[in-house]
Specification:
globular; binds manganese (II) ion; 235 residues; alpha+beta; Fumarylacetoacetate hydrolase, domain 2; 6-stranded mixed β-sheet; 5 helices
């Protein structure tokens, strides 16, 4: 079998501690999964979870202890940060029961679901897909993946985001409306999950805009921190 051109290498995220990389299959994202954030986006109550995807190659890997740079994307005047716990799957399947969902988890990372909010809102208004607001290049900055064998199962702990030293987002993993196991189970009824899938589990309250030159520091208890600078407008 020959390809008509050389395929791109798979998107991959370094594993904490060095030495290996986690190849990315798909990126699933959960919408409105912390109560206070759902309220700030104009919703209330425990709605069924809903999902969108980002292409695998939207990951922007930020190495341990370094400051990554995300070019400010085109076509937006309202680039928002959403700090999220990312779950990395080492196994897949369909119709996974909640009680067995944790068996699929390989590890965890800190991620940012960067969002062109003005474009997303325009698409919402028109009943059109969110892809232009969510699935653009570099829209998924991510730190190294920590193996679950080292961290244990993450079900609680602080999740925060600072911009230029000011706290913008604060939450606790225990406040997820749909916890990680429920999310995996629900996803597996709609898609066939596979090793390499990443799940961005949703963001706590406090989302807001960033500008070129801003520095973001995201943290999740047990996973260290993720540092990102917003670069000049992409050319
Ligand atoms: Mn999000």
């Amino acid at each position: 079998m020959t390809y008509v051109f050389q395929p791109a290498p798979p998107a991959a995220v370094p594993v904490h501690g060095g030495g290996s990389s986690f190849p990315v299959h798909r990126i699933y994202c959960v919408g409105r999964n912390y109560a206070e954030h759902a309220v700030e986006m104009g919703h209330t109550g425990r709605e069924p979870p809903f999902f969108f995807l980002k292409p695998a190659d939207t990951v922007l890997c930020v190495p341990e202890g370094q400051v990554g740079t995300m070019p400010y994307p085109s076509q937006t005047q309202n680039l928002h940060h959403e700090i999220e716990l990312v779950v990395a799957l080492g196994a897949g399947g369909r119709d996974i029961p909640v009680e067995r969902a944790a068996e699929l988890i390989w590890g965890y990372a800190i991620g940012l679901d960067m969002t062109r909010r003005d474009l997303q809102n325009e698409m919402k208004k028109q009943g059109r897909p969110w892809s232009i607001g969510k699935g653009f290049e570099h829209s998924a900055p991510i730190g190294p993946i920590h193996a679950k064998s080292a961290t244990g199962e993450l079900t609680q702990g602080a999740i925060t985001l600072d911009v230029n030293g000011q706290r913008r987002q604060t939450g606790d993993l225990r406040d997820l409306i749909w916890n990680v196991n429920e999310t995996i189970a629900t996803l597996s009824r709609a898609w066939t999950l596979a090793p390499g899938d990443l799940i961005f589990t949703g963001t706590p309250a406090g989302v807001g805009a960033v500008l070129p030159g801003d520095t973001l520091v995201g943290a999740v208890a047990g996973l260290g921190s993720l540092q990102l600078r917003i670069g000049p407008v992409a050319s």
